[in-house]
Design brief:
- This protein is 55% helix and 11% strand.
- With 312 residues, the chain is α/β, with parallel strands linked by helices.
- It has a domain at 107-300: TIM Barrel (Alpha-Beta Barrel), CATH 3.20.20.370.
- Strands 1, 2, 3, 6, 7 and 8 form a 6-stranded parallel β-sheet that branches. A two-stranded parallel sheet has the order 4-5.
- Strand 2 (137-140), helix 3 and strand 3 form a beta-alpha-beta unit.
- The longest helix is centred in the N-terminal third of the chain and has 99 residues, at 3-101.
- The radius of gyration is 40 Å and the shape is elongated.
- 29% of the residues are buried.
Amino acid sequence: MGKSSKKIRGRSILDFIIYLIVISLLSYVIIINNTKIEEINKKNDRYKLELSKLKKEYKRIKKDEDNLKKDIEELSNLDNKIITEKNKTFKLASEVEKKIKNSETDKKIAYITFDDGPYYLTDSVLALLKEYKVKATFFTIGSGKATCFDNKNASCMETYKKIVDNNHTIANHTYSHAIFRGLYSSSDIFTNEVKKQEKLIYEKTGVITNILRFPGGSTTAGKLKDSIIKWLRENNYGWIDWTAQDGDGGDLKSTNQAWNTFKNSINDNIEVILFHDYSDITYSILPDAIKYLEDNNYILLPLFYDSVMINK
């Protein structure tokens, strides 16, 4: 074999080796690429799955958000709905009052009212009224309510809102109720006490009350009564005393005494009943009092400004 043949043969071998190397490299690259493509596809599948989950979660969150917005909207309109329903009730009550006054119906109305609170016992009174589906009126004061008179370890400040949240009427009984400590010293002192309690009620409940009860009753105002009533009228206030009671504002010694006083005082077709929500005795007879009134054809309602019983 000549030198040229050997040279050609050697080049062929070299070319073959280079070919094998290239083929190997290409195979390696293809394998690597396929592996990477497989990994990418797997990752892509995972991402698709995660994206699907995220889309479902987003839809759920969006649905929850829409429901929450709806709930918030309903809540924001709740006060207006309550006011609307109250106004409907009070309008109907006014019509019934007129029919009662004109002897056109055998129905009667009783307005249960509680003075001087809120107290620690007021929560129990509210629970009992809720149980018996009765709405009442609470003539509130503000002095000393940072602690409850009947439980010094508790605060009664949150109870104002509870009264309103339970759809009872909250009304003004002056801030201090200080009958023997200067409340009736002048009409200005009295009316400032009314304004102070009005402000407190609004701060605690968002309600601007326009119904007042004189501490001790209107006769307690004595010679100041006319000037105070003039101010009340000018400021769109109505005021009210009471027609029936159980005597819990005085020296009440027993449930029997309370019951007899209450029962004997129920004589009119429209009654405004005076109770105090600090009285355990009143609390104990309250279920029987409610039943007695209902059995005797009384509709039990909270007071409202346009009631015929409100003096204006």
